[in-house]
């Protein structure tokens, strides 16, 4: 059994639990251990997505990643635990506009009672539980989520979240079709290089947990707690930013961000 699977079992995972409870436990642990972060995009790490790369970066070094990393690692772990799991590829929708096609990785699951998805790579908008196709809504500190059969330009299945007005917003759409592992590196290349990529412009760290959500960019830190209260702290300078990073991120991620900021400052001094 892999190091990560052993860690999950040691954290309290039980073989006797129903599958949905097992999946929710694993998703909560992934959210706790692996933040959504795009440092490798900004520093130009072009390594291909392989099990070895993911294990070294995320498990051994204790970094996070984008969807094609966190959900790829999730897929490997779920398969190791015996789940009928495959890689899926979706297209994200932001405020009615489609992002780069098929650049959101997710996990497709077949359980005894139907089809589900698991997603640990959607920023801090995480259900922290699997979503059943045309099944019940799932509530987490990040919001209320559901998975519906819905015809769109980018697929016949839609992941949706409820907005503050009670309406349902489209998060992403896809067809229920397994994607090859090689698709992950294609996603990475597009996210790194495409001018319309949302993740090659500025740093972003995001996480969700059972107590709330957090996001950090180079201008501010935002937290939202489970009871609905929110706070935003704007950074006066680089020192404030790095203090927030050190308080929220693992030593390895902090070191990677510090190196990125040092290189950024050096490039600005030369220009």
Automatic annotation (TrEMBL):
Transmembrane segments: none
SUPFAM superfamilies: Cysteine proteinases (SSF54001)
One family name in Pfam for this protein: Acetyltransf_2
Xref: Gene3D superfamilies: 3.30.2140.20
Annotated InterPro entries: Arylamine_N-AcTrfase, Arylamine_NAT_domain_sf, Papain-like_cys_pep_sf
Domain of life: Bacteria
Family, as annotated: Belongs to the arylamine N-acetyltransferase family.
UniProt-recorded name of the protein: N-acetyltransferase family protein
Source species of the chain: Bacillus badius
Lineage: Bacteria, Bacillati, Bacillota, Bacilli, Bacillales
